[in-house]
Amino acid sequence: MQGTDEADKNLTEHTVQKLRDMILSGELAAGTHLQERAFAERLGVSRTPVREAISRLITEGLVTRQTRGAPTVSRISVSEVVEILHVRRLLECEAARQAANVHSPAEDWLRFKAKTLEFLENERPDRVEHADFDFDFHMHIAKTAGSKLLSEMIKGLKMKTRIFDQGEIPSRFEPGAREHLAIIDAILARDPDAAEQAMRRHIENAREAILSHIHRLS
């Protein structure tokens, strides 16, 4: 029984991750109906893990439960984006400051720096690869800050804005990468003020780019 329970749990986690990736990559656009039977067939699983995955994604804000009909991939309004980015700036500036105060392994930051420089010096990565890297970078800062609650809050907000982040806005690629380098250098230098300022500049620039992108699409 224990082995069966573990297998069911792993299948649910796999289904959650698969649906989440499909939403964050843009494969499932905002407003897409998530019919349990259709997605069970599409993913090759039963309806139970799909139902549980949808419930998880509802709690994350990526899916919205409808009064009638199937749940849908959430639409994020301009006002919601503005609010999310405002809160992200508050939380992630604090996370960057705290990360600079922690004696974390320099090797971790140097790996992020090397990968960022590789992106700048070679062929630009595809949107999904870069979005994954960007997400990992921001989450590493949040985790290094040492607060589980802070990390979880940043993760939730970051996922909601991911489809509008640098991978979706080509003009943000190089500036965003150079802003990442500034954040890394400040953390490596153990300079909390510089880390906080670099993160604030990064979030504010991302906010302006995302809002401009949304307005162009509207």
Mind explaining what this structure looks like?
This is GntR family transcriptional regulator. It comes from Lutimaribacter marinistellae. InterPro entries: GntR_C (IPR011711), TF_FadR/GntR_C (IPR008920), Tscrpt_reg_HTH_GntR (IPR000524), WH-like_DNA-bd_sf (IPR036388), WH_DNA-bd_sf (IPR036390). This protein has 218 residues and is mainly α. It folds into two domains: 2-73, Winged helix-like DNA-binding domain superfamily/Winged helix DNA-binding domain (Arc Repressor Mutant, subunit A, Orthogonal Bundle); 78-217, Four Helix Bundle (Hemerythrin (Met), subunit A) (Up-down Bundle). Helices cover 73% and strands 2% of the residues. It has nine helices and two strands, in the order H-H-H-E-E-H-H-H-H-H-H. It has a two-stranded antiparallel ribbon. The longest helix has 26 residues, at 192-217. The radius of gyration is 19 Å and the shape is globular. The model has no long low-confidence stretch (mean pLDDT 89).
